[in-house]
Write a structure and sequence with these properties.
The complex is a heterodimer of chains A (about 325) and B (about 300). Chain A has about 325 residues and is mainly alpha-helical. Helix content of chain A is about 65%, strand content about 0%. In chain A, helix 5 crosses helix 8 and helix 14 packs antiparallel against helix 15. Chain B is mainly alpha-helical and about 300 residues long. Chain B has 2 domains: about 45 residues; about 180 residues, MetI-like fold (Orthogonal Bundle). Classes of the chains: A mainly alpha (about 325), B mainly alpha (about 300). Chain A: Keywords: Membrane, Transmembrane, Transmembrane helix, Transport.
């Protein structure tokens, strides 16, 4: 992999003894100027669109007013962080964020792994393909469409109410979207419905790389299908599971934005509002840019701590890790 | 695959057969749960609007009509929004895929001195971002609000997509690039004439991801262009209808639609179902044909990323 493809172009013999490292770097860069010019516009693009906004973090330490220039801004120290940590709304949205992303994390993993194991046991390849294609479908639709579907399915005359009343589990149709304490469950169900099929892709790919001789040996020992599933396939998935777990722990404060925003309404606000909606509402809606930015910084910093801790724990346990 | 191959070698026990049957039943249920909402939406969208208010439409329309679709395409705002959606999907995908592939080509070249720096420069942005408000202010300061370009420019490079294409290029036989060079082709020519045609499977995957993202997005419309109806997209129009329904201001909305000068009458329920179908059908028509590619792309990107 590390072998240069264009050995002629980058021949190390060009290096003469008197040439230091910097000169060598520049002489090679000049040789490779076409490549450099090909990626330069995008490096500038990334600088402007991805790195420049980080400069905007200074807003959190100022009483930011959009009309003023940077030197005219009034510095406020940690005032906005103090306001944030004294705000009970902040704790509520933090609780909602953590609960929703934890449910999503656990449920997402369990359902996707289970489905991957079961798909792997299907003998008819064509049937398996059809199930997979159908299960990818909801992943491709927008959250707007998914929310529209959820509202229809859960409406007073929707299919869920119909089934539950027909089965006498409910006396009269329930207003699912009108009660806050249903929201987390509805959201979790929707997220599983939307992405469980998609999330099996990576597990199914990992399953194909498990050594088939292990299954043969287990078969000779008289292990049943179910035992083989639990004792060979599942342990074979462990490295993938751990890597995905680390990546997802870094996103523990990313409970998603679109579904909560689209499915949230005045009646379930207590449970649906999360950090992103808080930032949008206070930061952009009410124009307190500084407070919104402070909440955004909090989110990024905590995510980083989670990502690094999870990675560190995996390293200590001798498991595969992200970096 | 291997597991099913080995299990076919032996005689299946009764327990195994019960397991197989339950498994198939479970999969059929899963497909029903996945498909039903779409079938239901299609049924409602082809049903007479006033009749649909009575409820009870599940799998098949009770009173067939095309009026809902006629109404929507007769409504100039929604028609225009559909055109904008198509335009941003086509332009955005073409621009992003070409640029991302070019960047991926440069960082796939092992001897490129800036390779490590450029790769890291982009990968960091996957984990780190300024956040909503600094991003919003940047777009505003750049004068991109209230313009079509806000749909294209901020999405020029997708880092995850770049990783997919890079891995694919790195997997190409080394001799191919070498022979292009011996034939006297420059880097850019090599990229256009040799690398692009060879990376079609990766490009198909990435195009699908970008196109789906472009077609589905509404938040950028909401943030930057909500005051300009000429730049609205289909998803955003659907989102607005959704918000009125969800906050149960339905009664007012019904009157508004029925008093419209258009002769065809629709209700929010039918309108929503019809727009939901229009907003999802284009994607659903495309993705099954690209399944082989995106499964491959996800596997490569998932492991490397």
């Amino acid at each position: 992999m590390e072998k240069p493809v264009y050995s002629v172009n980058s021949d190390p013999q060009v290096k003469s003894p008197g040439m230091n490292k910097t000169n060598l770097f520049f002489s090679r860069l000049i040789q490779q100027r076409t490549l450099a010019f090909m990626c330069l516009p995008f490096v500038i693009w990334a600088f402007v669109f991805k790195y420049l906004p980080i400069w905007g973090w200074t807003m959190a330490f100022q009483n930011y007013k959009p009309a003023r220039s940077f030197s005219e801004q009034e510095w406020a120290g940690l005032k906005h962080f103090r306001i944030l940590f004294e705000d009970s709304t902040f704790y509520r949205v933090l609780r909602n964020t953590l609960v929703m992303s934890t449910i999503q994390l656990i449920l997402g993993f369990v359902t996707a792994i289970t489905l991957a194991l079961l798909l792997n046991e299907l003998k008819n390849i064509i049937f398996k393909r059809v199930v997979q294609t159908v299960s990818y479908l909801p992943h491709f639709i927008s959250w707007v469409v998914a929310s529209s579907i959820v509202l229809t399915v859960l409406s007073p005359d929707g299919i869920i109410n119909l089934l539950l009343t027909k089965l006498h589990l409910l006396d009269k149709p329930e207003l699912w979207m009108g009660k806050g304490n249903y929201f987390w469950g509805i959201l979790a169900g929707t997220q599983v419905w939307k992405d469980v099929g998609w999330n099996t892709i990576i597990y199914l790919a990992a399953i194909t790389s498990i050594d088939p001789s292990q299954y043969e040996a287990a078969e000779i020992d008289g292990a049943s299908r179910f035992q083989r599933m639990l004792n060979i396939t599942l342990p074979g998935l462990k490295p993938v599971i751990i890597i995905l777990l680390i990546m997802n722990l870094g996103n523990i404060l990313e409970s998603g934005f679109e579904p909560q925003y689209l499915l949230g309404n005045g009646m379930n606000l207590e449970y649906s509002e999360n950090l992103d909606i808080f930032v949008l509402k206070y930061g952009l809606g009410m124009g307190s840019f500084s407070l919104g930015t402070a909440a955004g910084i909090f989110k990024t910093v905590v995510s980083f701590i989670f990502l690094f801790s999870a990675n560190h724990i995996a390293k200590r346990m001798g498991e595969s890790r992200l970096f | 695959m291997q597991a099913s191959k080995t299990s076919r070698l032996r005689n299946s026990s009764p327990g195994d057969r019960v397991f197989d049957i339950c498994n198939v039943i479970f999969m059929v249920c899963l497909m029903i749960v996945t498909m039903y909402p779409f079938v239901n939406m299609i049924a409602v969208s082809f049903n007479d609007a006033n009749d649909a208010v009575r409820g009870g439409i599940y799998l098949w329309p009770r009173m067939w009509t095309l009026n809902n679709y006629k109404y929507i395409f007769g409504e100039s705002d929604i028609y225009h929004a559909t055109l904008i959606s198509l335009l941003r999907t086509v332009t955005g995908t073409a621009v992003s895929v070409f640029c991302t592939a070019m960047l991926a080509f440069t960082v796939s070249r092992q001897e490129f001195v800036l390779r490590k720096f450029v790769t890291l420069f982009f990968v960091i942005t996957m984990y780190f971002s300024g956040g909503l408000i600094p991003g919003y202010l940047l777009i505003r300061n750049l004068g991109l609000t209230d313009s079509f370009w806000v749909y294209i420019v901020p999405g020029v490079i997708g880092v995850f997509n770049m990783i997919i294409i890079r891995s694919f290029i790195e997997g190409l036989p080394e001799g191919i690039l070498e022979s292009a060079r011996i034939d006297g082709a420059g880097e850019f020519t090599t990229f256009i004439r040799v690398v692009l045609p060879l990376t079609i499977p990766a490009m198909a995957t990435v195009s699908l991801f970008v196109a789906v993202g472009q077609w589905n997005s509404w938040f950028d419309v909401f943030l930057y262009n909500s005051s300009n109806i000429n730049l609205s997209t289909l998803q955003y129009e659907l989102m607005k209808i959704l918000q009125t329904t969800n906050t149960s201001a339905t009664a007012g909305a019904v009157e508004a639609y029925q008093s419209a000068e258009n002769a065809v009458r629709v209700t929010p329920t039918s309108l929503r179902a019809t727009m939901t179908i229009i907003a999802s059908v284009p994607i659903l028509m495309v993705y099954p044909f690209l399944q082989r590619y995106f499964v491959q792309g996800m596997t490569v990107g998932g492991v490397k990323g």
